[in-house]
């Protein structure tokens, strides 16, 4: 039998216990494209909140973020199980990247006019590339052929729905929300249905690393806002409040990073139900991480006189997503790994974060987040001691 050309190899399942499995250079390039799209969505939220269009801005941010996150997540789990790094795999991944950049290009128009046209075009490009990848998996992995075909057919059918919305643009806000919600339900259902035909052999440590890298990417939005604050502080009209914003942004970013990268493993089991809870549950965590950066950008606008909203509203633009981040982290990890009196550390501190702006403002939010790190570290040590003493 003639061997396959090196540019086209079967997409056979990877070993889910492969040692030293790490993100590939292609995956890191994919993340670079993703961060551009996330930055566009965060910028749209920032400008909407600063212009006192908060509700509309949140709705559109969530809509744009879902498209970016969902395409990233689907590709990540598929690549964890089937990345064979041949030329066709690379080219189809680059098509997904091109679609992501198209989504990013359409976000400004979406925020300005309610038109999802460019976002849908980019999204459909990403998803159709995934259909081709799953069809290749169906060829290369006979054992899970039914699963791969279910993914390919399911994704393709949902794209018919999205394309069907194009002639209706721009949609009124109410219709747009309804259309997005229905589309999300359809998209979320595809993996839940497909995986029941036979779970794909994703690599647990590789998936945890991939999610950790995206967490770092979304936290970078806050560091960008801190840099913007320092740039204003170094300008002709010095204002100490810019320094306060930058220092608070640094403290909150480091706290969110520390809390996420604790000693406990995020995904200690390959149970399908736990994997879905953890994988889907990261959506609000990622979105909140990016939204914290948008909140700090709003504060910079307020102090520099480019926003009409109050300073307290700006503080809450940081505090609310920070609290959501803590609750999401508790939902995907801490409720499984921390027991006893320490079980609710993160929810308690989420409540304190929401109260902090009413007492001492932004600096109080930063102080509460730092204290949360201390208490969460103590909880982790107590839990470890209790386990070792049994």
Would you spell out the secondary-structure blueprint of this structure?
Elements: H1 25-50, H2 54-82, H3 87-113, H4 117-140, H5 145-165, H6 173-194, H7 204-233, H8 240-260, H9 272-303, H10 311-337, H11 345-359, H12 362-388
Which features characterize this protein?
single chain, 390 residues, mainly alpha, I/LWEQ domain, 12 helices, 0% strand, globular
**Average pLDDT, all residues:** 93
Q: According to CATH, what is the topology of the largest domain?
A: I/LWEQ domain
Termini separation comes to 59 Å
Low-confidence sequence ranges = none
> Which architecture of the largest domain would the CATH scheme give at its second level?
Up-down Bundle
Helix content: over 70%
Q: Determine the number of helices (DSSP H or I, runs of at least 4 residues).
A: 12
For the report, how would you describe the main beta sheet?
Answer: none
- CATH class category label of the largest domain: Mainly Alpha
- Global Rg: 22 Å
Rough outline? globular
Which structural class do the helices and strands define? mainly alpha
Overview of the molecule:
The protein is mainly α and 390 residues long. It has 2 domains: 25-197, no CATH class; 204-388, I/LWEQ domain (Up-down Bundle). The chain is 77% helix and 0% strand. The chain is globular, with a radius of gyration of 22 Å.
How would you summarize what this structure contains?
The protein folds into two domains: 25-197, no CATH class; 204-388, I/LWEQ domain (Up-down Bundle), CATH 1.20.1410. 77% of the residues lie in helices and 0% in strands.
């Amino acid at each position: 039998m003639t061997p396959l050309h090196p540019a086209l190899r079967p997409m056979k399942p990877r070993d889910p216990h492969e040692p030293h499995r790490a993100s590939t250079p292609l995956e890191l390039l994919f993340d670079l494209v993703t961060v551009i799209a996330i930055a566009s969505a965060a910028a749209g939220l920032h400008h909407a909140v600063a212009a006192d269009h908060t509700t509309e801005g949140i709705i559109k941010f969530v809509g744009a973020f879902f498209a970016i996150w969902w395409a990233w997540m689907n590709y990540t789990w598929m690549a964890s199980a089937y990345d064979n790094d041949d030329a066709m795999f690379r080219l189809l991944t680059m098509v997904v990247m091109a679609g992501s950049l198209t989504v990013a290009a359409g976000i400004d128009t979406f925020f300005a006019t309610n038109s999802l046209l460019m976002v849908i075009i980019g999204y459909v490009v990403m998803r159709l590339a995934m259909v081709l990848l799953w069809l290749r998996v169906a060829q290369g992995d006979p054992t899970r052929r039914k699963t791969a075909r279910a993914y390919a057919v399911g994704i393709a059918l949902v794209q018919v729905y999205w394309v069907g919305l194009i002639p209706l643009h721009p949609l009124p806000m109410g219709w747009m929300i309804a259309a997005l919600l229905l589309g999300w339900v359809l998209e979320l259902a595809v993996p839940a249905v497909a995986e029941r035909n036979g779970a794909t052999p994703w690599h647990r440590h590789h998936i945890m690393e991939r999610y950790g890298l995206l967490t770092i990417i979304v936290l970078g939005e806050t560091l960008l806002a801190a840099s913007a604050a320092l740039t204003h502080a170094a300008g002709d009209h010095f204002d100490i409040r810019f320094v306060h914003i930058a220092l608070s942004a640094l403290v909150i970013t480091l706290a969110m990073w520390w809390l996420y990268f604790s000693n406990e493993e995020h995904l200690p089991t390959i149970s399908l139900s736990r994997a879905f809870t953890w994988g889907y549950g990261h959506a609000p965590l990622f979105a909140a991480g990016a939204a914290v950066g948008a909140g700090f950008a709003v504060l910079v606008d307020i102090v520099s006189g480019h926003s009409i909203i109050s300073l307290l509203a700006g503080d809450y633009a940081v505090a609310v997503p920070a609290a959501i981040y803590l609750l999401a982290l508790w939902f995907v990890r801490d409720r499984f790994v921390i027991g006893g009196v320490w079980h609710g550390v993160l929810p308690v501190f989420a409540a304190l974060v929401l109260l902090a702006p009413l007492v001492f403002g932004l600096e109080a939010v930063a102080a509460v987040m730092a204290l949360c790190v201390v208490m969460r570290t103590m909880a982790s040590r107590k839990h470890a001691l209790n386990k070792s003493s049994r």
